[in-house]
Design goal:
Blueprint: H1 4-17, E1 30-32, H2 38-42, E2 49-50, E3 64-72, E4 79-85, E5 92-98, E6 103-109, E7 125-130, E8 135-143, E9 152-156, H3 157-192, H4 195-214, H5 217-222, H6 231-253, H7 255-258, H8 260-278, H9 285-312, H10 318-339, H11 347-350, H12 352-403, E10 414-421, E11 429-436, E12 439-447, H13 451-467, H14 475-489, E13 495-503, E14 508-514, E15 519-523, E16 526-530, E17 548-551, E18 557-561, H15 575-583, H16 591-605, E19 613-620
Antiparallel strand pairs: 1-2, 1-3, 3-8, 4-7, 4-9, 5-6, 5-8, 10-19, 11-12, 12-13, 13-14, 14-17, 15-16, 15-18, 18-19
InterPro entries: 7TMR_DISM_rcpt_extracell_dom1, 7TMR_DISM_rcpt_extracell_dom2, Bact_Sigma-Reg, PPM-type-like_dom_sf, PPM-type_phosphatase-like_dom
Organism: Leptospira montravelensis
Pfam families: 7TMR-DISM_7TM, 7TMR-DISMED2, SpoIIE
């Protein structure tokens, strides 16, 4: 939850910025939608309608309006006044009044360059001088594609320039906040590469562009010689702001995991705003402005709902997200009500949108900071957990290595070389042997699956093998005994295995297999493979296994392996087509060199390991 001191500070700032100097009242106007020339206006051939008090909005569908109002000098000396139209985006304005000598006409064209203006100000402003106690009638023709309004103010010279100074300070603070947050969060994005930060930076950029166009600062400060209408670019920036804040919200609230439907709805809305941004140069401007009446409340309610839902699902940083949208909403409402004259003027009302968006982006930044802190804490916890898991895996690896033979057989009739490469720290492959004077028994097994669970079950295979020691001279009986034990000891897991018994007196190899790959004998530079079919261990307790015999010769080299040695190398070929071409060039090497070279040659073919690898070679002497 947001702490109370932060809320109190926030409310204090809102109260503080709500204080300010009173602006001059807007003049009471009369208006007419008749299509008249200026000469007809002065000839009193126009029927004027009286506007309600403080009314100056005329809707979105009227292309133009004539208005008239009076300016009075109540003092006994000439006075200079500034007439300001608070619409920097208006298309065209024609101002006119009658003096003693003639009729004065002043024009404004929103597409002309800023340097062409009579007074260099972001709004259309004009100077006029009134004689003592003079009351002057001003006529204005306003043409605009979009919202049609006449928000005139009449200033005394000193008051107007004092207001300009405060206005620039307020807007300078606003743009400074935007730029500082943009730079700060851009640097964070470069460091952490979190998508929410880049979407937030894009939102800040579009927001800054949006208000520079909306407030008339773009032409004044960045392009005083540009002759163009800012409206289509304003609509692009507004729709882009809604698009980027939607993308930011998707990433920040993690809606894909929290609520798939909300995620898809916001994503659909984001695409819609992107399309609207592209159509800003085509669609009529009044259509675009009317669409904002609906799109902003829609996006506000949608993202507020998404933030509230995420908060209920445990994403606590969403509290800042909700408060950010709330401050923007308050700012927009205060700005609208102030302009409509429904509430007394205040600094907060005058700069409601700027203040609301400033607090919004600050709170968004705080939300990102809080989320980053949570991510760092989670990352630290994950690292600690990973360290603990690595320690456990290392312990498990040591335990597994203890279930494998700690040394190779010391037998004058053969030498043995083993390579054991688990896919992870530990694996499901297993081998063991019985070494006695008249013979030698070797088992190799592969538990289905990988990792810790397979390694744990491989210890069960060792127990099964050692319990079947009485059958060490009979491969099929030993495999059958292991099968009976594993059928009662393993659950939802099976084992491929093979047992080889070498009788040194008869120089014969007896073997039995349970789904294990064929083994290879290299003799006199020739390669031959042998296999014995059999059901995997752990499936049927009463399965009867076959046993086969192969005569041996001194100098034979036996290669016994699990399927990880050759699988995923060339899927279209069988094991013989893969292994034989790699074995043949190195058959004359010593056992150590052969073993190492074969693994290296196969590793070069293997793009990625997907299984445990065990390779055993036996040289018969």
């Amino acid at each position: 939850m947001i702490q109370m001191p932060r809320i109190k500070l926030f409310l204090f700032i809102l109260v503080l910025i709500s204080c300010g100097n009173q602006l001059p009242e807007r003049p009471l106007i009369q208006f007419s939608f008749e299509n008249k020339t200026l000469e007809e206006i002065y000839s009193d051939k126009v029927v004027w309608s009286k506007a309600n008090e403080m009314k100056y909005h005329f809707g979105y569908w009227k292309p133009s309006v004539w208005v008239k109002f009076e300016i009075m000098n109540p003092e006994n000396e000439p006075k200079d006044y500034i007439l300001e139209l608070e619409s920097p985006w208006v298309d065209k304005v024609l101002l006119s009044w009658r003096t003693k000598e003639n009729i004065v006409k002043k024009t404004f064209d929103g597409s002309s360059s800023f340097s062409a203006r009579e007074i260099p100000h972001r709004n259309p402003v004009y100077k006029l001088t009134l004689d003592p106690f003079e009351t002057r009638t001003v006529y204005a023709y306003i043409e605009n594609s979009g919202i049609l309004n006449a928000p005139f103010r009449i200033w005394k010279i000193n008051s107007f320039f004092d207001r300009i100074e405060r206005d620039y300070i307020a807007n300078g603070v606003y743009f400074g906040i935007i730029f500082a947050l943009l730079l700060y969060n851009l640097l964070i994005y470069v460091s952490v590469r979190e998508k929410a930060y880049i979407y937030y930076c894009l939102y800040l950029t579009s927001l800054g562009i949006n208000y520079s166009l909306l407030g008339g600062f773009f032409k004044q400060l960045l392009g005083p010689e540009l002759e163009m209408s800012v409206k289509p670019y304003l609509y692009v920036s507004v729709n882009s702001s809604l698009m980027f804040v939607g993308l930011y919200s998707l990433s920040f609230l993690n809606l894909r995991k929290v609520n798939r439907r909300l995620d898809q709805l916001i994503l659909f809305s984001v695409v819609g705003f992107g399309i609207m941004a592209l159509l800003s140069f085509i669609l009529p401007y009044n259509w675009m402005e009317v669409s904002f009446i609906y799109t902003f409340p829609y996006m506000f309610l949608l993202l507020m709902s998404a933030g509230a839902y995420s908060y209920t699902k445990g994403i606590k940083s969403s509290s800042f997200f909700l408060l950010a949208w709330f401050t923007l909403f308050i700012g927009v409402i205060a700005d609208s009500l102030t302009k409509a004259g429904l509430i007394p003027f205040s600094t907060f009302g005058r700069y409601g949108v700027q203040i609301g968006t400033a607090f919004e982006v600050i709170l968004f930044s705080l939300a990102l900071g809080r989320r980053l802190r949570f991510l760092l804490e989670e990352n630290l916890m994950s690292k600690n957990e990973l360290t603990a898991i690595k320690k456990d895996l290392e312990t498990a690896r040591k335990i597994q290595m203890r279930i494998l033979p700690d040394k190779l057989p010391q037998n004058q009739n053969l030498t043995m070389k083993v390579s054991y490469q688990p896919l992870y720290e530990i694996g499901g492959d297993f081998y063991d042997f019985f070494d006695f004077s008249e013979g030698f028994g070797l088992v190799i097994a592969d538990v289905t699956g990988h990792g810790v669970s397979a390694a744990l079950d491989s210890s069960t295979v060792k127990i099964a093998f050692r319990n079947a020691k009485e059958y060490k001279h009979s491969p099929k009986e030993l495999i059958a005994a292991m099968n009976r034990f594993l059928c009662t000891s393993l659950h939802a897991r099976f084992v491929t295995a093979a047992y080889f018994y070498i009788n040194f007196n008869e120089l014969k190899l007896h073997f039995s297999a349970a789904g294990s790959p064929p083994f290879v004998i290299i003799r006199n530079r020739e390669i031959e493979s042998f296999e014995c079919p059999g059901l995997l261990l752990g499936v049927r307790p009463n399965f009867e296994y076959e046993q086969k015999m192969v005569p041996l010769q001194k100098g034979d080299r036996l290669l016994i392996f699990t399927d990880g040695l050759y699988e995923n190398l060339k899927p279209d070929l069988d094991f013989a087509s893969i292994l034989y071409p790699e074995i043949l060039p190195i058959v004359d090497l010593t056992e150590d060199e052969f073993h190492k070279n074969l693994l290296n040659r196969l590793s070069k073919m293997r793009q990625i390991s997907k299984d445990d690898i065990t390779l055993i070679s036996l040289d018969i002497h």
